């Protein structure tokens, strides 16, 4: 282990936000084909607090652990065999997922090819907000559902981290986008390209839309959203369920001839390069609602867990 130390948000036991504590720990060193990256900002995702409380990816972790998967930073050192990155390069990534990446820290190491060049037109805070949410939206729309121009895509939780990117990627692919969100988010989602926006607190979405080809269900069983989505989906259409396919959804969808699939995001530097291009061309925007210092990770989790975030929350690590 390195003689250098670094600040990191560690958890020694699973539990509430209070288990997040900043400590000085050994700085990791890059193995052959890995890079050491100085983290400027670390994005926060629901899987972070789910894992913190013993759900999410907790079963795959060993305690103590450093939470966090989304990184934007600068390459500090490269291990033997790294050919595509050099010290000083600005990079972003969701390395190692679902193994621990330790992004809530001043440094991370990971295989160099988990990283992509950060979008040049945005800062580290915005770049750190992108990887997990953007890869989720992209891999669902492009790899899982193969969305084509003219198809109708319904995005539940369109105002959140994944949702607001899914709206923009679906538009980029030429789809017609239907979004669910509370009314204060509607003008913003319209600007991002949503064609129909439904205030789910005022109307049942199945009363006002239909003939959907692909549903991105970022809600799941809450309010029976997953099973209710079947009635708006055309026979042969697809419901993608990142929170899992419930038994009820499988049954109702099976009866209606609607396909369902669970989904888990994967590291994907090629997709991150494509996404960086869309950001740099101005076609896609990333929304960061608020930033927090490493020491404020618990407060950030408390806010995230209210499930009301517009876009993303990000930890600033090094300026
Ligand atoms: N399997 C995977 O690979 C994977 C990857 C990424 C995310 N996920 C999961 O996907 C979900 C969304 O992730 P995220 O990062 O986008 O979360 P997020 O940013 O925390 O989502 C917050 C948003 O949810 C909206 N919302 C809450 N209840 C709603 C409802 N009943 N209908 C419509 N919108 C609602 C809120 O919008 P309003 O203010 O309009 O209510 C808020 O903007 C999480 O459960 C996460 O764990 C899974």
UniProtKB/TrEMBL annotation:
Matching SUPFAM superfamilies: GroES-like, NAD(P)-binding Rossmann-fold domains
Matching Gene3D superfamilies: Medium-chain alcohol dehydrogenases, catalytic domain (3.90.180.10), NAD(P)-binding Rossmann-like Domain (3.40.50.720)
Domain Enoyl reductase (ER): 15-315
Alphabetical keyword list: Oxidoreductase
A GO term, aspect molecular function: oxidoreductase activity
Oxidoreductase among keywords: yes
A Pfam short name: ADH_zinc_N_2
Record-given protein name: NADPH:quinone reductase
Organism: Streptomyces brasiliensis
């Amino acid at each position: 282990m390195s003689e250098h130390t670094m600040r990191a948000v560690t958890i020694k036991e699973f539990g509430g936000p209070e288990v997040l504590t900043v400590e000085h720990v050994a700085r990791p060193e890059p193995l052959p084909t890995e890079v050491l990256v100085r983290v400027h900002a670390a994005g926060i995702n629901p899987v972070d607090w789910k894992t913190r409380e013993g759900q999410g990816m907790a079963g795959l972790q060993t305690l103590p652990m450093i939470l966090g998967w989304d990184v934007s930073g600068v390459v500090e050192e490269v291990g033997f065999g790294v050919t595509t990155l050099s010290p000083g390069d600005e990079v972003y990534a969701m390395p190692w997922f679902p193994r621990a990446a330790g992004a809530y820290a001043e440094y991370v190491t990971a295989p160099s090819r988990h990283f992509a060049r950060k979008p040049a037109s945005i800062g580290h805070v915005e770049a750190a907000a992108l990887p997990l949410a953007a890869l989720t939206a992209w891999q669902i729309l492009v790899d899982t559902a193969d969305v084509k121009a003219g198809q109708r895509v319904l995005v539940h939780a369109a105002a959140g981290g994944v949702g607001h990117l899914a709206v923009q990627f679906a538009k980029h692919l030429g789809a017609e986008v239907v979004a669910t969100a509370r009314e204060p988010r509607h003008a913003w989602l319209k600007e991002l390209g949503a064609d129909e926006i439904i205030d789910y607190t005022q109307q049942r979405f199945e009363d006002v839309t239909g003939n959907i080809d692909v549903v991105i269900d970022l809600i799941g069983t809450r309010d029976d959203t997953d099973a209710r989505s079947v009635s708006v989906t055309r026979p042969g259409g697809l419901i993608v369920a990142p929170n899992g396919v419930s038994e009820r959804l499988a049954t109702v969808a099976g009866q209606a001839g609607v396909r369902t699939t669970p989904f888990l995001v994967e590291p994907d530097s090629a997709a991150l390069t494509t996404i960086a291009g869309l950001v740099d061309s101005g076609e896609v925007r990333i929304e960061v609602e608020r930033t927090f210092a490493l020491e404020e990770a618990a407060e950030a989790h408390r806010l995230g867990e209210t499930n009301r975030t517009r876009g993303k929350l990000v930890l600033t690590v090094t300026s």
